[in-house]
Design a protein that fits this description.
Elements lengths: L1 H4 L1 H8 L4 E2 L5 H7 L7 H14 L3 E2 L4 H16 L2
Parallel strand pairs: 1-2
Helix pairs in contact: 4-5
Length: 80
Amino acid sequence: MLLLKEMGFFKEKLKRPVLIGVSRKSFLRLLSDSALEDMATANAVGHALALLSGADVLRAHDVKETLRVVRLVRCFRESR
């Protein structure tokens, strides 16, 4: 979680696009108390947080669902 919270630091210091892979990670499973086969919601939230924290590229197992998250976050950003 700390990496998600501090992603701006990495972007600022590295001056490079940031790729993150939160899909199916154990910290999401622990935080959401989900079984591995029930990780869809936790993955979606993890991807949304990563994008909102500054991720430029997402590595995902469930591409179709991740694209939905990307579109929703994009709509949220554009509505500000």
